[in-house]
Amino acid sequence: MTATTDHSATVLHGPVIDWFDAHARDLPWRRPEAGAWGVMVSEFMLQQTPVNRVLPVYEQWVERWPRPADLARESPGEAVRAWGRLGYPRRALRLHGAASAIAERHGGDVPSEHAQLLALPGVGEYTAAAVASFAYGRRHAVLDTNVRRVFARAINGSQYPPGATTAAERKLAREVLPEREDVAARWAAATMELGALVCTARSPRCERCPIAGNCAWRLAGSPPHEGPPRRGQSYAGTDRQVRGKLLAVLREAPGAVPQAALDAVWDDAVQRARALDGLVADGLVEPLPGPAYRLPRG
User: Fold this and answer.
1) Beta strands of 174-237 (E only): which ranges?
2) Cα–Cα distance, 162 to 221 (Å, whole number)
3) Looking at the chain, which runs of residues are DSSP E strands?
4) pLDDT single digits (tens) 263-290
5) How many angstroms separate the Cα of 189 from the Cα of each of 10, 58, 138, 177, 205?
6) If you average pLDDT over residues 125-143, what whole number do you get?
């Protein structure tokens, strides 16, 4: 552990939270009226998806389904349809499943306890911690990609965090968490925003960073990443692209879509069939006689 954590991370808490208070974006899920359900919807949507793409879909979603029970009354296919082009549409099914469980187990109110959140279908450690922290002000370490990058640089002196979250990262996140519950929740949001706006992956804006003077990476001379090359995910020509094109046709259709209409989406018959089979296996599409396909009815 570096010198920064040896004398506790309080040297970072104040500057980062003060910066957040002055520079945080006004996002709809951060407003009081969003409530815990708005926070949960945003957390599902923001996984691997930038804010600018999420905003219009989020606003349409919470207007149509302002409470979990409203979504639970709809078919899973309607959740997939409303997900639009956000990508990774299994998140829509998971959010629908979580809404149904909230309606059945918790009287329609998003639970505040971490264990209860974690018990909901489709909710993992990160989402449970984020909802408990951001919606209810609870003290939890919230580790997304942005926070991990801030900690890697400011505390561990590395340009990037490991490829997957490690036990050491989780331990560090707990160690640097402020003791006061309200401050800890603010710290969680602030470190996430710092990573999103300033301590970015490709072009960090160190001149704007409130903790640049205490950043272990900068103090070490900003050494380059020593691990495997970091490659962005390709999309063009992949099964993901084919799946997206198939789902786009199904979302636009009010009912079943004949096989012939889906065949016209992609020339490679083998890849198209593989992508369609994957959608069926994931529960995103239902096969019908004909043959034909539709979004799931539940």
Assistant:
1) none
2) 20
3) 257-258, 286-288, 292-294
4) 999 999 999 999 999 999 999 999 999 8
5) 16, 19, 12, 12, 19
6) 97
Confidence grade of residue 234 (pLDDT, cut at 50, 70, 90):
confident
pLDDT value at position 4?
44
Cα–Cα distance for residue pair 178/273, rounded to 1 Å: 51
Tell me which of 43, 78, 193, 286 is the catalytic residue: 43
Query: For residues 207 and 198, what is the distance between their CA atoms, to the nearest angstrom?
Result: 9
Greatest CA separation found in the chain?
69
Burial of residue 21, with CB atoms counted within 10 A of its CB: 0-12 exposed, 13-18 middle, 19 or more buried: exposed
| d(C-alpha 50, C-alpha 48), whole Å | 7
- Look at the chain and count its residues: 298
Instruction: Output the pLDDT for position 233.
Output: 66
Instruction: Give the span between the Cα atoms of 256 and 273, in whole angstroms.
Output: 17
- Answer yes or no: 43 catalytic: yes
What is the distance between the alpha carbons of residues 200 and 206, in angstroms, rounded to a whole number? 9
pLDDT digits (tens, 9 = 90+) for 55-70: 999 999 999 999 999 9
What residue has token string 């004949």? 258
Structure tokens at 36: 């815990």
Element (H, E) at 149: helix 145-154
CA 35, CA 49: separation in Å to the nearest integer? 21
Return all residues near 74 (Cβ < 8 A) that are at least 6 apart: 65, 96
What's the pLDDT at 10?
A: 75
Nearest Cα to Cα of residue 138 among 178, 191, 170, 171: 178
